[in-house]
């Protein structure tokens, strides 16, 4: 009974001790949270270790591929060594290797440990002639490791004698089971790190380190600069036997539990349901975390798979061929894939069976020259046929493996697939041809010049020949061709504009004249742009438009405007003259009429009537001359035609024959019989007659009159000079009114002042010009410019 009575008390002990229960629950909750925290810590650590392993595997894959590629390169170099231990075509094979592997510092052949063959020589001169076994203890130990291992071994990282840091991979070569030397590759250290992905700048929370045990000191040396150390952080390592390297990858983030004490205390005071809910939330978060980690792992796997695929297909085809039979002796994987054959199938085929039938003849010709030692290598673009009869465009390089004085034996063929490039180039050529046709179809000259090459013309469209007569080659033949062909009156203006305004703004439009190839003057409107910007100019592009017709029309309009102004002035002057002359005649008539009405005798009336008749005759002459002037100034349909100048001069002289005889004058004519001018027939007769008659009329009384008539060319026109040795004209007083109406200068009774006025109007009505030079007492020269 006592026992049974105590059982309920024991069973309710927690209920009866709430503080202790609360304390125990708190302790339990803390233990649970501690357990969860520990689990979370392990998960984060495992996830980070998994990430580190994945990154190290990626580095391992890249580095293994680089080392294998280096071993293949070393094997390729070894193939150039014949049984006598002499390399064949080392420079040519090495050149192709270096072209395909830009990460290499150089390649070497090291007979008996002495670096004798080096490519490229430039930049690596210091390495040639070094004896690895005698250079120093460190190099000797590292070199002997390759011999001891009987496989490729990488020395370094080391300070290269030619400068910089790098690693040297050496493959021991044996001929007849006797050590010959090494086939070696030199890899720049920074390129090694880049290809392997050992670049700390690319990662936020991860740091790589690259180390190797120094065989002399036994100490581990590190080669990636690091500003911090991370003791206690998660890290993993990978070891590479090929160079006895060790790669460290460290997560710089400290692993710590993500919780706060206050939250945990509050969590302990919550009821069980709330605790369970929070626990469920925590588990859900863990599941999400695992899901994210799985997604990242899949992404890394996809990236890794793509990388392997790309790397496996990024290569160049290399084959060794029997030069006698033409059969493949060896073929690499890329070459097999290129032609669609397995290696066994390809080694049973002859290379000419893969060459397109249209390219066989030229290939046979080149190979015949190679076999005859006329050339030591040839490269050409060929078409090949794969297993499925598909055409493959490829760039083939063929190099012999025999010395020049030996019989042909074997040769190496390096084939690069350029099918896509050929198709692109064909499309590019077609596009370029279309663009050129489009540019050349434009009315203007499209041009381009290089600012950095002293404004040398880099392009000009074919329109330059149509407009200026120069070919495209002539235009681009020399720097400054454009400046040389500027019209001399515009050259200084254009050069000043270019010096002061060219780089002041991006777009320009300027007009100037150029001398065409046939000597004609062409007006150009040049619209140009500075490319790409005025801050960093590299090129000038523009279009030169021929605006000669526009300029000629503008000039014609200007001349017409000036002519209209001049005619307006003449008409105004003419109105004054008409008003004055007619008023003078009218006054005379009125005065004489008054005298007649007041005459007392018949004799006086008859005398006045005679005076009246004389005034009427003078009035009639004045009206006739004024009518001629009006006809000249208002005629719009004057016919201009080609006239033989000498013929009209002779006709005018014949008309003045009697005056020439009376004066005893001598007329000298020096005008070629093939000179033709565009003029009106009647006007030319009038002009010549007026000027020749004036030369005779105003001759000097003390000397024989001499009239010289001569002609000279002026561009596309002529200048006619009519020179006399007469009394001359004082031009200082009379130049402005020389060609005026009713202007006389010598007091001759028969002078009316109409001749020179009519002559000047007739000349200018034809669009030409007349001028005069004269000295009093010496003579006068009238000059007519026929355009």
Task: Briefly say what this structure is.
By secondary structure, this protein is α+β, with helices and mostly antiparallel strands. Residues 1-18, 256-269, 275-280 and 749-753 have low confidence and may be disordered.
What does this structure look like?
The longest helix has 62 residues, at 18-79. The relative contact order is 0.04. β23 (706-714) and β24 form a beta hairpin. 47% of the residues lie in helices and 23% in strands. The chain has 787 residues and is an alpha+beta fold. It has six domains: 36-258, CHASE domain (Beta-Lactamase); 261-313; 317-425, PAS domain (Beta-Lactamase); 442-546, PAS domain (Beta-Lactamase), CATH 3.30.450; 554-634; 641-786, 2-Layer Sandwich (Heat Shock Protein 90).
- Helicity range of the residues? 40-55%
The backbone outline, from C-alpha atoms, is elongated
Tell me the number of strands: 26
Number of domains: 6
Within the largest sheet, what's the order of strands?
2-1-5-4-3
CATH topology of the largest domain: Beta-Lactamase
Which CATH architecture of the largest domain? 2-Layer Sandwich
Q: What is the arithmetic mean of pLDDT?
A: 78
Residues in β-strands, percent: 15-25%
Which structural class is indicated by helix and strand composition? alpha+beta
Which ranges are low-confidence, i.e. pLDDT below 50, for 5 or more consecutive residues? 1-18, 256-269, 275-280, 749-753
Assigned CATH superfamily of the largest domain: CHASE domain
Radius of gyration: 54 Å
Helical run tally: 24
Write down the CATH class of the largest domain: Alpha Beta
Largest sheet: 5 strands, antiparallel
Query: In angstroms, what separates the terminal alpha carbons?
Result: 154 Å
